Structures are given as C-alpha cells and as structure tokens.
Predict the structure.
Amino acid sequence: MAKEIKIGLLGSGTVGTGVVRVLRENAEDISKKVGAELSIKKVLVRDTSKKRAYLEDVQLTDDAQDIIADPEIDIVVELLGGLHPAFEYMLAAMQNGKHVVTANKDVVAQLGHELFDAAEQHGVEFKFEASVGGGIPIITPLKECLTGNRITEIMGIVNGTTNYMLTRMTEDGSDYDSVLKEAQAKGYAEANPAADVEGLDAARKAAILASISFNSRIALEQVSVEGITNIEPADINYANELGYVIKLLAVAKDYGEKGVNVRVHPVFLPTSHPLAAVKDVFNAIFLRGNAIGDAMFYGRGAGSLPTASAVVADIIGEARNIVSKVPAVIGCTCYNHRKFCPLEETESSYYVRLHVDDEPGVLGAIASAFGESGVSLKSVIQTRKVGDHAEIVAVTHIVQHKHLQEAADILQKLPVVDSIRSIIRVEED
Ligand code: NAP
Ligand code: HSE
C-alpha cells in the first residue's frame, strides 16, 4: 500500500491514549478499509518527559506549531479539551489545509460555526462525532441516515458521570461525594467535574444535538441548565416509591409556531420508559422523527476506548475522502433560523417536595396555592416527619412552566411552608 496518511494528535490523555491504541491494534483492518496506511506522526502534550503507552516511537512535542505547520500532516486530531487554545489550534490547522477531528464539545457548542466557516473556506473536513455521546454514533446518523426526517424531539442521557452517580445513588444508596470520586477515577468526569454535575457538559451536547436536529443554530446561552447538585436521597426514594427513576436529561423539543426549546434538567422518568433502563456510564439518545417514528441510540458515553471508537471513525472517514480525492460533502447543516420557545411556555407534570408545619389546615392552604395558579394536582402524599416539619409531596397534572413557577412563588410566601425542597419535572409515558 503506497499511500500513507499522516496524523497529528493534539493531546494524549484519556481519549488520546485510546485513539492511539485503537489505531495501532486495528491498523491492518483500518488500512484495508481506507486504502492507505494511517500513521501518527507527532503528538502534542504538556509534559514531553512523561512515558506514554503505545507512543514509544512517536515524536512528542510541547509546541503546537510542530504539528499545525507540518506540511506532511494531513489530519489534525484535537483531544486537548477546553475552549482555548484548542479552538485556535483547530482554526490554524484548517488554514494550513488540514482536515480536523475533535471530541471537544466546548468548542463545537460555542465556536463550531467559526470552524465550519473556516473548513468550507479552506476546503477541508471538520468532524466531531465523539463530542456527543462518547462512543455512540449520533452526529453522523442525524446528518446522514436520518436526514430525510423532520426531527420533532430529542431526549438524551448525555453525561456519563451523572448517570453513573444517579445509578449508584439509586441502586446502592451510595452518597454523592463518594460516587463522584469513583466517576473521576474511572476517567468519565471532566477536568473540573462541576461541568458534569451542574449540567453544563450536558448543555453543550444538547446545543450540538439540537442545532443538528432542527437545522438551526442553538447557542449554548439559550439552553436552560439545571444539574443534579440539589437531588437529595429523599427524591431518589420518592421516585422509586412512585414508579420512576431520576435521570439527568438533555431535552430538545419543537413546539411548532412557538419555536424550539432546549434544556437540561433532572426528570422523573417512568420505569417503563426506554431511557429509564440506561444505567451507569451508559448514555442514550431517544429521538422522534416524522418518518422513522421513535428511535434510540445506546452505548458508552465516556471513557478511553469508547470515545476513541468515535474519534477513529471520523479519522477513517476523512482518510477515505483523502484517498478517493472527494471534497468535504456535508458541512454545516444549520440552514434554518428557528424561533426559541422560552422555558416558561413549555409544559410538563411536576413533582414538588415541601417541608411544612405539621398542623391542621396546611394541606388546604397548599392546595389553594396550586389552585390559584391554575395548577391541578394529580396526587398529594404525606409520609414522614423531618424534624419538626411534615414532608409533603405533590405531583401535578401537565401545566405550563410559568404556572408552576407562580405556584412556587405563592407557596414560598405561605407562613406554614418552611421550604420547597425540590421541584422536578415528571415525564409521562
Ligand atoms: P485529558 O485526559 O485531560 O487529556 C488532555 C491531554 O491534552 C493531555 O495529554 C494533556 O497533556 C494535553 N494538553 C492539554 N492542554 C494542553 C496544552 N495547552 N498544550 C499541550 N497539551 C495539552 O482529557 P480527555 O479526557 O482525554 O479529554 C479530551 C477531550 O475529549 C476533551 O475535549 C473532552 O471533553 C473530550 N471527551 C472526553 C471523554 C472522556 O471520557 N474522557 C469523552 C468524550 C469526549 P499532558 O498529558 O502532558 O497533561
Ligand atoms: N464528562 C463527560 C461525561 C465525558 O461524563 O459524559 C464525555 O463527554
């Protein structure tokens, strides 16, 4: 095989190491699939003195220019993480005529449009399959296999760390801090795990998924975000008693004339829902298209080799096009300018957990507060005392978010209400 395609790797951490390993271990098959040898020419790291598995014979550098400006390198693979300097390196690589692959959802969600423009201008490819769902193929299926559909809804478990944490908290009663440490030790969590537990990592992925699904650019700032930091063991127990599990979901819905809404928040999911069975670090993306109906994509959403699987697929895709001299065919697909539907206008059932004075007439006062705001209640339960207070759990019928918010404002001011402990959306079957 005469042709050799040279790769420059920016980063050799959890994902970078996996990419090198997959390219090495599956080299024979990959070269047959591509019609050329793929070789890693140089790798950018911060610490060039550190011993790196599978990279004994590869040049390490701490100067990005060694890779970005190397005329022999065809494909630059960015696995550094963070916005800067990752964005600048990818832009410069494109300006130098290199195809780019990344797993970086920060950059794709916030500066992806600039990279799409640069890729088009310089006639190179830009691929980012691993930026959402780790090893799960979802970007390519949306852009290619499902492109004949109008996508009306996407609901995804897109953060492995929080799904791992919620699963362990639900199944073993583990405490929040120890399961977060476990997720970090397994290489699932971001360098700063606040991005995982506060929902920002999922929000970036939600913005990417929504932009591709609705063919309309959704800015990260438009995505409303709530993470899992306020989930208490009591919420997990009530979910269990009522026939639900708590999951952190990225949700993108088309509300027709009102526009599209994109958000991340915990949800009570019925145990019968397909996403309820998605446990540990697994991710899944459930979508509805006007031709395919419901479909679900499932797999490992984080970790070295699963993420490498998606990165290597993108590398192979670009390498095949280089070999067959095909120019980038599918670039940016955001040809629409959809209106954004405000969160207040969206609808859901809600679970509301309150601590109240334990005295006659309290239930009536609470029911009136919901009633005044036009919120109809499906069920109210009072099972236990917490200190001097009674704990009350109400589940509403489907209401607009703004009406639930009005009810919460009234409840907050009632003298008999000590605190609203949780408000969580309930997804009905
Ligand atoms: P990581 O383990 O922290 O590795 C980062 C690598 O980049 C390290 O090799 C580091 O060098 C190098 N690096 C970082 N900043 C650098 C700089 N300014 N100059 C030179 N080298 C630099 O990160 P990761 O978990 O592999 O994640 C990489 C990307 O994949 C991120 O965008 C992440 O969001 C995304 N991703 C990760 C996962 C996952 O499961 N981990 C899943 C999907 C997507 P040293 O080795 O010398 O420190
Ligand atoms: N921290 C992310 C997660 C890694 O836990 O899903 C994959 O993007």
